[in-house]
């Protein structure tokens, strides 16, 4: 009986520690990467705004449909995990930015408001800086904890793979 009580107390303490850590994790998560592409801004911009060609260089995302460059459905394959997201496409030409904003109320995962932003900046030497970010919201503490130990590395690696693939596609 004493052993059972000890095991219960240890498990309860571990659970409270996990929950306590999860309460301090942010609900809004952002990953950002940047890269310099040795090509003029117009070349990079034209590549990114040809949404129908993105499957040519994306590494772990597949655009399932693209409706007149205003909305799309994207399927992510991250190490055996599949995530399906419907996104509104907002091309902000003056700001040289593209936003992909999650739309619909479908719950494909615990992630909410999964958005992406691509921002371009022309550098003095004629090359282009690309900043790409993923943002999402996790409203509940336990998914935040799970995200911090699992999904975080998946999304970070995906972001970096895709931004490097964009550079290879444009430069080569």
Q: How would you describe what is shown here?
A:
By secondary structure, the protein is of the alpha+beta class. It has one domain (2-171): Alpha-D-Glucose-1,6-Bisphosphate, Chain A, domain 4. The chain has helices at residues 2-23, 41-49, 141-171; strands at residues 28-37, 61-67, 71-78, 81-92, 97-102, 112-122, 128-137. A 7-stranded antiparallel β-sheet has the order 1-7-6-5-4-3-2, with helices on one face. A hairpin with a 3-residue loop joins strand 2 and strand 3. Helix 1 (2-23) crosses helix 3 (141-171). The longest helix has 31 residues, at 141-171.
Keywords:
7 strands, 7-stranded antiparallel β-sheet, elongated, Alpha-D-Glucose-1,6-Bisphosphate, Chain A, domain 4, 172 residues, 37% strand, alpha+beta
Furnish the topology, listing elements before pairings.
Elements: H1 2-23, E1 28-37, H2 41-49, E2 61-67, E3 71-78, E4 81-92, E5 97-102, E6 112-122, E7 128-137, H3 141-171
Helix pairs in contact: 1-3
